[in-house]
Amino acid sequence: MPNVPDPVRENARLVNEAIDGRLPLGGLRVHEAAEHLLTAGGKRLRPALLMLVADAFGRSPRDTVPPALAVEITHSFTLIHDDVMDDDPLRRGEESVHKRWDVPTAILTGDYLYSKAFETALKTDATDATMRRVMETLAETCTLICEGQALDVEYAEADTVSEDDYLRMVELKTGVLFAASTGIGALVSESGIFDEAYGYGLRIGKAFQIHDDVLDLVGESGDLGKTRASDLFEGKNTLVTLHARRNGVDPSLPHDASDAEVEAKVEEIREAGSIGYARERAETLVDGAKDDLDALPEGEPRDALAEVADYLVRRDY
Amino acid sequence: MPNVPDPVRENARLVNEAIDGRLPLGGLRVHEAAEHLLTAGGKRLRPALLMLVADAFGRSPRDTVPPALAVEITHSFTLIHDDVMDDDPLRRGEESVHKRWDVPTAILTGDYLYSKAFETALKTDATDATMRRVMETLAETCTLICEGQALDVEYAEADTVSEDDYLRMVELKTGVLFAASTGIGALVSESGIFDEAYGYGLRIGKAFQIHDDVLDLVGESGDLGKTRASDLFEGKNTLVTLHARRNGVDPSLPHDASDAEVEAKVEEIREAGSIGYARERAETLVDGAKDDLDALPEGEPRDALAEVADYLVRRDY
């Protein structure tokens, strides 16, 4: 099992340092709730990737902390609001914001982090022209994420969802923020490229989500920081459950299913080849992402980006 | 009773045209809900003010539609989320989004409009340097609005709230978006001034909210598009209720109060001088706002801005 590549870990450390350096945010409940989520851990993948892409073009990771922090804060805001919408009780192994406080606090904390993300990105040491493109990328990305979440909610109620529908939803809900991260990394380093960096992020982001869906079934609840097989309990469409259904397996679980019943259902899905199928789709995306990296200068950061792509579809949690 | 000044009405028409020209937004529920609120009316004061300030510096209103629309969209997002937090059933005489659809849809629709506001502002025909300042103003403003709403929620639970606390909350919750509107108007017209335009907006914004609190008590429910005396039912602190309390009047109402009881309570508050007191405070703010306008070139737009300031504290709804 691969570990998080070292340069990612090092960048994540810089991000955590930057977060700690900005605390406390203020004396209100909304500040406390924002700190709760920002300091609850998380792998800091998106900011670390932004910094790695910029690093590939010779920009020191320390200089790209502001835009990196901006994408992490954006990610945090979406987590808080998604947890309210899905009424998810756990996040990163801690109580989700709306459970620990309440729904109004969670809405407001997400809203607060939303603008903080833009404010933070604007602290980047970059030309005004570059900053405009960064802002455009961040704003358009947030719109797409909302549309992805909207598709997720609507698909949950739909009679039929195709694999293409699902992949489009994943692209919007998860892919575009990875893509914005790596794309912004290319922008703030004045690399002159954008599309390939964006494409790399989009592909690994989709692969990441597909692998997350796999982990929901095969991972350990303690590692995940959330309920195991929550997708089956909630009847969510994923690449796994769609494949299972196409192959005659009902992938849903009743709310009172026992651990043994969960285990048996996961086994049934595995035997239908659905988990292997999803893993394969994720691997193909990762191969494409590694091809995108050809547009970046050779060196340690680029190697690390290739390693991250592999890591994302092989991690345990 | 003064009417909305003509130049405001004309700018509001341009804003409505621009909104209509952008519909439909898409086929998802989140798009439908966003359209529901954006087309439900509203006076379009903030965008009209932005356009008037820019107009005072010679920038044609047609050219400043994008940033104007951006502040209106920002306003819309806050309304949708505030209605969820306050569980308000009505908005602009229509069902609020979370009532017509549900809470997840309302959260998501607000989030969608939030980034749309930034995207729309970025369509402004302005230099990159100006755009950076516009973005900074918009992002910082959204953060302050969230902190204002947070104060509003926390004050509702507090044992004592001072008049200064209340005024600070109003400044954040309402003042800063008016201020951002007029400030951005000064930025996009390359006027070279910012503080006075921002100050004018901040003062009339506060006056606007204080007058809204007055209208909650003295206005007609049909005109307001919401429940009359909702502040008394919810036990909200306002300049009126704080004054009443200081003068020995309990300004709260039980949830089952009859129309006659509402009427009697409002009369009691009026006799304590609380409504007159709030009106006077609003007038003083308006006088200060009109002084700020000295920094703008003389002419029809500046006269209209002075008229708006008066209108805001004399309107019926």
UniProtKB/TrEMBL annotation, chains A, B:
<keyword id="KW-0808">Transferase</keyword>
<dbReference type="Pfam" id="PF00348">
    <property type="entry name" value="polyprenyl_synt"/>
</dbReference>
<keyword id="KW-0479">Metal-binding</keyword>
<dbReference type="GO" id="GO:0046872">
    <property type="term" value="F:metal ion binding"/>
</dbReference>
<dbReference type="InterPro" id="IPR000092">
    <property type="entry name" value="Polyprenyl_synt"/>
</dbReference>
<dbReference type="GO" id="GO:0004659">
    <property type="term" value="F:prenyltransferase activity"/>
</dbReference>
<comment type="similarity">
    <text>Belongs to the FPP/GGPP synthase family.</text>
</comment>
<keyword id="KW-0460">Magnesium</keyword>
<protein>
    <submittedName>
        <fullName>Polyprenyl synthetase family protein</fullName>
    </submittedName>
</protein>
<dbReference type="InterPro" id="IPR008949">
    <property type="entry name" value="Isoprenoid_synthase_dom_sf"/>
</dbReference>
<dbReference type="GO" id="GO:0008299">
    <property type="term" value="P:isoprenoid biosynthetic process"/>
</dbReference>
<dbReference type="InterPro" id="IPR033749">
    <property type="entry name" value="Polyprenyl_synt_CS"/>
</dbReference>
